[in-house]
Sequence to fold (797 residues):
Amino acid sequence: MSPRPQKLAHSIQQACKSKRAALPISLLCGSALLATALPATAQEGSGWQIEEVTVTARKREESLQDTPIAVTAFSGEGMEKRGMTKLNGIAAYSPNMSFQSNPSFGGASNAASIYIRGVGQKEFLPTTEPGVGLYVDGVYIARSVGAILDLVDIAQVEVLRGPQGTLFGRNTIGGAISITSQKPSEEFSGKISATVGTDSKRVIKGSVDIPLSDNLLSRISFADMQQDGYVHRTDGIDLGDDNTQTGRLNLLWTPSDSSEVNFSLEFSKDRENGPAMSLLGINLGNPIDPETPPMAVIHNVGANAAAGATNGAPCANPGMPINLAVPGCYDLRYKVGDDQNLGTAPAFSNSDFMASNLNVSLDLNDNISFKSITAWRDLDAEFARDGDHSPHRVSQFHDTLEQKQFTQEFQLLGNHFDDSLNWIFGLYYFKEDGNNVNTLDFVMSNFTSGGRFENTSKAAFGQATWNINDWFSLTMGLRYTEEDKSFSPDQVILNNYFAGSGHPLLDAPFMQVGTRVLPFATDSQSISELTPMVNASFHVNDELMVYSSYSEGFKSGGFTQRVFPPQIAGFTAPAGATDQELIPDFAPEFVEVYELGAKYTGLDGRLRINGAVFHTVYDDLQVQVFTSVAPVTKNAASAKITGWELETQWLPAENWLIEASYGWLNARYDDISFEETFIRADDEFERVPERTASIAINHDWDLGEAGTLTGRLDWSYRSKEYMDSFNTELIAQPSYDLLNANLNWTSADEQWEVLFALKNLNDEKYLMTGIIGDAFQTYEGIYNRGREFSLTAQYHF
Fold:
């Protein structure tokens, strides 16, 4: 260790002994003491090292090991070598991360549910905000429908943990996934690949770089992805299929040495049968909330009466879950396994989006540069599914979603005093509007839900890093955000199947055709918030950097758009309530995050160990509870999340690479109202496993003129996780592990590649998502496809 870092380490240890240590110093104490205990040996003479990873997490290119924040980075080539085809595949290799496709109560097959360090959101409705931000080339993707992106022409993916507000245009509370697409090349070149695999998988991908002039380059990429479904309905529809076409045009214009213009235009089209859902069980007893209408029980009372019974009892109950004597009974006869579905209602998932992005960069002088990011995105989706998985009409869903968004971001970036001071200042504007119509066909009524929404966000943000000397840097950032949201429900009862029955509730005046479920009015919310961050980093020596940070984040509130029965003042709502008070809403949530981390590179560049410990304090936590016809979000909790994560890469010998990661989380409620939520204080967070882990072994064989052969074996693990906030065991997924294997051959001239991939080699069956509907009394889930194989041939020209 050089004298300067030795003196630094001693100074830190002395400062840590002081009871009056300032916040940045006290935060660093644990990291510094850990850092001085780590080995700093290296072997001389080896000519091979782990390839350096360059990231842009702080809006400038820098080494991953010099970036004092928790980042996991994937190259596009690396994801291909792992056999990944969709973005959610990164969760297996990112500690403390969940990335599921969750249709909720719609039927979209590409709705993302992302959690990082216990913070996230599973609902796709546009009146709620995601907890983790998704960015493509710096552009925020607002809606989760369509966010299970296909990995086509991707250069790099970076996973950033914790609140992101002083560097990104749109504020996010839990973290960010930043995707960078491939840029055009200066030479005419391209590649094309074909893949075949399990369940008639057929994928064609290609890209071509076409220089149009010395300073105008273009790149065109495309993909067609097909695969049969694996949950079979008796009407011939196979759920869980893939039918996607996507394309992208990138133009790069460099009018001068100091300016660059990037323009992209892309589209994607999905025409699928919907998610591979199956019936896991039926609650034939009482709902969790005694005020919730039990739709399965209501249906079964009617089925029993139609069969001639006069006792007014349901045809099935917990003691008799199957009653074949009553043909119309909704019971466990419809639970037919995870690869079958007896539903008969329409099932499809169609989505189209188009997007364009204009990114202009200009060097104003040697020290200051300017960037403008202008983007537009248009999403149209329609999806439907049978929620009861039977020929009966207990719960059936149909959604249309139209959304348009426009974003404008300006950045001014500076670099001064021989890289001693780096700063960024940004202005951001976001606007989206659209319409989400939910048509719900239930046992007692058919009605429309949803409505029009409009959201705007304006922000000013800045961050500066002062490299005080060769081994100490201080970063401070601040963000000011203003957000305005409005929701205009357009919800009407279309049919009352109990009209004329005289039932005091189901045939009540406010349940008749034409009644509005929510007032035909507009409710709005506004919030302005100031969120800071501070980060200090120490290069203890050439091999070790430690850092500490404190950051704040928030997620704006929203509206509960699916409500039933109708909210009528004096009947189902308090007398005298205004129209706006009848539209249920929820407030913003807030976090404070403390983090200590270390990044170590040793053994002459052949070993990397990156780790972090963190503590999150949650206030006004938005919890989702299902005690009605749809999930209801409430600010009924405060919580704390503590955890740590570790990632390592090691070259034990030439041509060998070992990678590993581990994450541990302890998420707990500090205070929660059981009366409001029916959640117990000792319940675990939904979709947040306590432990995640992965190990990969990679080996290259040099075949001389025959090329190169690379073998890779991946193991990943997730501990038990609950799919709902009530910790329902029937839709919980016990701990499981997966084993994947890949064999990749590359020709000596690097023109040809062949990849054989085996996914889920141990044929593990696990629940990818689970849904409970308290009112519908159904338990649903999506299981994985099982063991899969694929064979890909790729040609470069």
Q: What stands out?
A: The chain has six helices and 41 strands. The mean pLDDT is 90. Residues 1-37 form one domain.
